[in-house]
Amino acid sequence: MKFGFRIPNLNKRIAARTSVKRLIRQSLNLKAPRGLGWVTNPKKAIYNRIYNRTTTGCMVVIPLITGGITFLIMFMVMILRITLPH
Fold first, then answer.
1. In the chain, what is the straight-line distance between the N-terminal and C-terminal CA atoms, in Å?
2. Which of 43, 67, 79, 85 falls between 20 and 30 A from 15, CA-CA?
3. Spatial separation of the C-alpha atoms in residues 26 and 16, rounded to whole Å
4. What CA–CA distance (Å, rounded) separates 76 from 83?
5. Which pLDDT tens digit goes with each residue over 50-81?
6. How far apart, in whole angstroms, are the C-alpha atoms of residue 30 and residue 58?
7. What pLDDT was estimated at residue 61?
């Protein structure tokens, strides 16, 4: 299991979108609704849940490197959402 930052891979991203299995599944409408991955493949669903909670995308670091202005704005919006009544 990986911990830390995820490194984007353009080749894997393109391969996932252009696979024969995906084309067949999309054309026959054999898709499970979002959130039901544990029904179709429980082992993969558990792995992905742990992976997504223990790693961070590389885009999280960019606002900190560029001066933190974007990060600060996002942080303030997040706090306002929490403190303001809905």
1. 39
2. 43
3. 13
4. 10
5. 888 887 766 665 555 655 566 667 776 776 66
6. 32
7. 59
Which run of H or E residues covers position 79?
helix 69-83
C-alpha span between 51 and 48 (Å, rounded) = 5
What's the angle, vertex CA 8, arms to CA 36 and CA 51, rounded to 5?
40
Q: Report how far residue 48's alpha carbon sits from residue 1's, in angstroms, rounded to the nearest whole number.
A: 10
Helix (H, G, I), strand (E, B) or coil at 55: strand
Q: Is 23 left (phi over 0), alpha (psi -120 to 50) or beta?
A: alpha
Q: Both tokens of residue 36?
A: 């039901």
Query: What's the pLDDT score for residue 37?
Result: 83
